[in-house]
Amino acid sequence: MDMRAKEFWFVVGSQFLYGPEVLETVAGRAQEMAEKLSKVLPYPLVYKVTAKTNKEIADVVREANYDDNCAGIITWCHTFSPSKMWINGFVDLQKPYCHFATQYNREIPNEEIDMDFMNLNQAAHGDREHGFIGARLRLPRKIIAGYWQDEKVQKRIGDWMKAAIGVAVSKSMKVMRFGDNMREVAVTEGDKVEVQAKLGWQVNTWAVGDLVREMNAVSEAEIDALMETYKAQYDVATDKLDHIRYQAREEIAMKRMLDREGCMAFSNTFQDLYGMEQLPGLASQHLMSQGYGYGGEGDWKVSAMTAIMKAMGEGGNGCSLFMEDYTYHLVEGQEYSLGAHMLEVCPCCAAGKPRIETHHLGIGMNEKDPARLVFEGKEGDAIVVSLIDMGGRLRLICQDIHCVKPIMPMPNLPVARVMWQAEPDLTTGVECWITAGGAHHTVLSYDVTAEQMKDWCTMLGIEFVHIGKDTTVESLEKELFYNDIAWKLK
Ligand code: MN
After folding, report:
1. 390 alpha carbon to ligand 1 midpoint, in Å?
2. β 441-445/355-358 pair status
3. What would the mean pLDDT of 167-183 be, rounded to a whole number?
4. What distance in angstroms lies between residue 21's CA and the mean position of ligand 1's atoms?
């Protein structure tokens, strides 16, 4: 999917009451605002119509629903726009929707203001009528209020746009599974039919034997070329170049299969490497750095979420990565989580230049020590996200964390590692996470926010649970209890 072609539509509400002159002014200003905002927003905002009738609104909604490039609509009421004429359009709306409560002028002009000015500039009035119908129809929506030329406001619109892009990516997500989930594991399971109905994901399995056949067809020249890329991006810290070449062969073969099927995400499992000498480590890591999602042990949910959150991040391939909670540092006042994976941590979060190393891997059927990238994750505020299947509904759990430089070098740990402090604190956070049923696998993101994940869940109609600085176990238990009742009624 070409995300560069994506755009958002600006639909401005009005009515015939004010006469053609006012309507021309409204249309001209809406056009001007869309053009100026497009220069600072991550995606273009295209002015579509100053809507005055039920038909104009229903028409533009129908057009938005069917236009692949339209990733969402943003409405605003410069003047008053009676909302009964919005009902038919809104009932049919299938794209993400943001109500932007703003006004053209920043200030009330002391000398100029008269009743004509008031009739033209009455967003405070019009946006309330407009908001009522959103509430009355229980529309999934985002409301952003503030002056349109303020940077903070523009940032919020941009963030919402990226969440809507996450919806577009989700709706076209295809996941390639090599083998099944790890035997007996519960949290990585899920209802693939429900996930396709709610989120749009097509999750299907390919035989590991198909991958091995594809690997055998990779030429030495292709491997030479990828080895040059590896050497340019990473430090080679092993003499076992043939092990690295094998990872290159795996990467080329997997990429070929993914691209042929239009898959943006994949999963595999160490329990099914039939015909392969190494679990893909470096191969998966380098694919992830190019925007592909990955989940270990057959975890297709975290794989798709990784690809979606990467696409929601900076430049359409942000710093979001597959992560796993491993072990804690429980010294009072120095409580940290240590995250890593068997091999597959995306180097997008590396604080320095990653090293390619080869080490024995006891788990799985590895004939040869798999090559992998080893590095420390960078510092910064982040979130961890886990999507679980509650049976009858999907729940997305999001926790605020702060990544730190690992407090010790851990020279014998043969994998990339990230260390963080969790909100509200490590142990309360763990109690909340476990209460909510969050997995050990997560997507860790440095550039997608909890608010964006909440918006993404709202757009797709799934449950969102946030663990932040003010969360307590008691408040969370209550929230989950009431959510359970509410979701049963839905
Ligand atoms: Mn794992």
Report:
1. 20
2. unpaired
3. 97
4. 63
